[in-house]
C-alpha cells in the first residue's frame, strides 16, 4: 500500500510540552489581540460617527441662529447669487462641511453646493426639522453618504420659516478611522510581541519543571504513582513546604490510624503529641527511627523534597519486635536452663564425690539442702504472687540472676492475688524492668535487684529497685522515649523500645511510670496501674504452686 499523501496526513500537535504550551499561549495571545482590536475598532467607528453628526448639528444650529438668513429667505427668491446662497457657502467654506442647505417650508432649496440644485426639492424628508425638531443621522443624498444635522429656521416671531441641513462627508469619517488603524495595529503588535515573549518564558519554566515531558507522559506517571503508592506495603506520608499533610497512601492510613481528615493539616493536628509526630514534622532526625503508634512499632524515615516539603516512609515492625521479644524470652529460658544445668552438674559432681568417699549421711544431707533451696525459692514466689504467668517469670529471672551473680529478691511486702485483668501486659512490664535492672547491676559489687508487687483494691503497684549507677535526673524523662538507649543494640533488633512499651502499657490502663533514686543509690522504677485487678471474688489456690510442688517432689524422689 502507498503511504498517505502529505495533504491527507492529520495535523498533530508536537509531543513536547514546551512546544505545546508555547503554541497554545501564542494562539491565546493572538486571539486576545485580535478580539481586543475588534472590540476597540467597533466603538471607535461609532464614536467618530457620533462626533461627525454632532459637528454637523452644531454647524446647522449656528447657521439657523442668523436671523438675517430667515429674513432673506422670506424676502428674496432662490438663486445662485442670492444672499441665502452666498451666506450658506461662506459658512460651508469656513467650517469645512460638505454642504449647507437652506430650505423653505415646502422643502425647496435656497442654497446648495451645486447651484443647479437651487430651487429644486430636497432629496431627503425635511418633515421632522420643519416640525421644529433637531435631527442627527447618517444618510445618502445627492452628494453621497454623509453625517448630517437638521434644525428648524425661525423668524423674528419665532415661527418656522424653513430649515437648515448641514452634511459632513462620511468618507472623511472613515478616513479618520483608517488613519487610526495603523497606530492601533502598532499597539496590538507590541502587545502580541510582549505576550509571545511571556509565553516563551513561561514555556521554558514549565519545560524545566516538567523535564520536557509530554502531557500524556505526565498523565501516565500520575496513574503509575497512584497505583504504586497504594500498592506498596510501606506507609507513605507526603508533606508540603508548610508542613501540612498532602498525601497518604492506604498503608499509612492503617499504620497511623487516620483517614482523609488528616489531609491539609499538620502532623501535630492530625496525630497529636508524640514521637511519631516529631519524626514526621522533622523535629527528630536520623535514619530508621523507631516510634510507637498505638500498639504498633514503626520504623520511620524522612526525606526532604526539592520544593521545601518532605516524604516520610513508615514500616510496620510490630511483628518483628514481637519475634525479637520472643527470641529474648527464649534466650532467657536457655540461659536459665544453662545455669540450672551448670549448677546441677556441679552438685552431681559433689554428690558423686561424697558417694565415692562413702560419706552417705553427708550425701543425703546435701541432697536435702539442694531440694530445700529449690522448694524455698518456688514456695516463696508462689506464696506471694498467685498469678501463674508472673510467678513463672520471676522464678526464671531468679535463676538467670543467680547465674549472673545478681541477687534477685522479692520484697516482704509483695502480695499479688490471681485476678489480674491483663497478665500478659504485666508480665511484659515486669520482664522489661527486671531485665533493665539486671543489665544495670551487671559487673558491680554486691549486685542486687529487689521486686515489689502489691495490690490495693483494684490497683496494682510495682517497684523494681537495683544497686546500679542509677539514672541521672536530666535523663529521667528521656529514657521512656522510643529509640533512646545507652546500650549497644543486639543484632536482631534495635534497643530503646522496652521502657517505651512499659509506659504505653501503663498508660493504656490509665496508669503511670516514674523513675527515681533508690535508697542507698541505684534506680527505682515505680508503676501504678489503677485497674489492673478484677473485682474481688473467692480466693483460689495459685495454679502454678501445685505444679512447682510436684516438680520439687519429683526431684527429691530422683535424688533418693
From TrEMBL:
Membrane topology qualifier: Multi-pass membrane protein
Gene3D superfamilies assigned to the protein according to its UniProt record, in alphabetical order: 1.10.287.130, Histidine kinase-like ATPase, C-terminal domain, PAS domain
All copies of domain Histidine kinase, residue ranges: 422-533
SMART domains, alphabetized: HATPase_c (SM00387), PAS (SM00091)
Chain segments annotated as transmembrane: 21-44, 184-202
Catalytic activity: ATP + protein L-histidine = ADP + protein N-phospho-L-histidine
EC top class named in words: transferase
Subcellular location: Cell membrane
Keyword terms: ATP-binding, Cell membrane, Kinase, Membrane, Nucleotide-binding, Phosphoprotein, Transferase, Transmembrane, Transmembrane helix, Two-component regulatory system
EC id: 2.7.13.3
A Pfam family of this chain: HATPase_c
Gene Ontology terms for molecular function: ATP binding
InterPro entries xref list: HATPase_C_sf, HATPase_dom, His_kinase_dom, PAS, PAS-like_dom_sf, PAS_fold, sCache_3, Sensor-like_sf
Protein's name in the database: histidine kinase
Organism: Streptomyces kebangsaanensis
Amino acid at each position: 500500500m502507498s503511504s498517505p499523501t502529505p495533504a491527507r496526513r492529520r495535523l498533530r500537535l508536537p509531543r513536547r510540552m514546551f512546544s505545546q504550551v508555547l503554541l497554545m499561549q501564542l494562539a491565546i495571545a493572538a486571539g486576545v489581540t485580535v478580539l481586543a482590536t475588534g472590540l476597540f475598532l467597533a466603538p471607535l467607528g461609532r464614536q467618530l460617527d457620533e462626533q461627525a453628526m454632532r459637528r454637523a448639528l452644531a454647524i446647522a444650529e449656528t447657521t439657523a441662529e442668523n436671523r438675517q438668513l430667515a429674513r432673506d429667505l422670506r424676502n428674496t427668491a432662490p438663486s445662485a447669487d442670492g444672499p441665502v446662497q452666498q451666506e450658506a457657502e461662506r459658512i460651508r467654506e469656513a467650517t469645512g462641511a460638505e454642504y449647507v442647505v437652506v430650505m423653505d417650508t415646502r422643502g425647496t432649496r435656497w442654497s446648495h453646493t451645486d447651484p443647479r440644485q437651487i430651487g429644486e426639492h430636497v432629496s431627503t424628508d425635511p418633515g421632522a426639522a420643519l416640525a421644529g425638531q433637531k435631527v442627527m443621522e447618517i444618510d445618502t443624498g445627492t452628494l453621497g453618504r454623509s453625517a448630517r444635522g437638521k434644525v428648524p429656521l425661525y423668524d423674528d416671531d419665532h415661527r418656522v420659516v424653513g430649515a437648515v441641513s448641514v452634511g459632513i462627508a462620511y468618507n472623511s469619517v472613515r478616513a479618520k478611522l483608517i488613519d487610526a488603524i495603523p497606530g492601533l495595529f502598532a499597539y496590538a503588535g507590541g502587545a502580541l510581541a510582549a505576550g509571545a515573549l511571556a509565553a516563551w518564558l513561561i514555556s521554558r519554566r514549565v519545560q524545566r519543571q516538567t523535564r520536557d515531558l509530554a502531557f500524556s507522559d505526565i498523565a501516565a506517571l500520575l496513574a503509575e504513582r497512584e497505583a504504586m503508592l497504594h500498592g506498596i506495603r510501606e506507609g507513605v506520608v507526603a508533606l508540603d513546604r508548610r508542613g501540612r499533610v498532602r498525601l497518604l497512601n492506604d498503608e499509612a492510613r492503617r499504620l497511623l490510624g487516620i483517614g482523609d481528615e488528616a489531609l491539609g493539616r499538620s502532623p501535630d493536628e492530625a496525630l497529636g503529641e508524640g514521637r511519631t509526630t516529631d519524626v514526621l514534622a522533622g523535629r527528630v532526625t536520623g535514619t530508621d527511627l523507631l516510634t510507637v503508634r498505638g500498639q504498633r512499632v514503626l520504623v520511620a524515615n524522612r526525606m526532604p523534597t526539592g520544593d521545601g516539603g518532605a516524604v516520610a516512609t513508615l514500616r510496620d515492625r510490630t511483628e518483628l519486635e514481637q519475634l525479637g521479644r520472643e527470641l529474648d524470652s527464649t534466650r532467657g529460658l536457655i540461659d536459665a536452663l544453662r545455669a540450672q544445668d551448670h549448677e546441677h552438674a556441679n552438685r552431681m559432681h559433689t554428690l558423686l564425690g561424697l558417694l565415692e568417699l562413702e560419706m552417705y549421711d553427708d550425701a543425703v544431707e546435701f541432697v536435702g539442702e539442694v531440694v530445700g533451696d529449690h522448694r524455698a525459692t518456688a514456695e516463696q514466689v508462689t506464696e506471694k504472687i498467685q498469678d501463674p504467668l508472673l510467678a513463672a517469670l520471676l522464678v526464671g529471672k531468679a535463676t538467670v540472676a543467680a547465674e549472673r551473680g545478681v541477687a534477685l529478691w522479692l520484697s516482704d511486702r509483695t502480695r499479688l492475688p490471681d485476678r489480674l485483668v491483663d497478665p500478659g501486659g504485666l508480665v511484659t512490664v515486669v520482664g522489661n524492668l527486671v531485665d533493665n535492672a539486671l543489665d544495670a547491676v551487671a559487673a558491680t559489687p554486691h549486685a542486687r535487684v529487689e521486686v515489689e508487687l502489691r495490690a490495693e483494691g483494684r490497683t496494682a503497684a510495682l517497684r523494681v529497685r537495683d544497686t546500679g549507677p542509677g539514672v541521672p535526673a536530666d535523663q529521667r524523662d528521656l529514657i521512656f522515649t522510643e529509640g533512646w538507649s545507652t546500650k549497644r543494640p543486639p543484632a536482631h533488633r534495635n534497643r530503646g523500645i522496652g521502657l517505651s512499651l512499659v509506659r504505653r502499657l501503663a498508660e493504656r490502663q490509665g496508669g503511670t511510670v516514674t523513675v527515681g533514686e533508690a535508697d542507698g543509690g541505684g534506680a527505682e522504677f515505680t508503676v501504678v496501674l489503677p485497674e489492673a485487678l478484677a473485682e474481688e471474688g473467692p480466693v483460689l489456690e495459685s495454679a502454678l504452686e501445685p505444679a512447682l510442688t510436684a516438680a520439687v517432689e519429683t526431684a527429691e524422689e530422683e535424688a533418693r
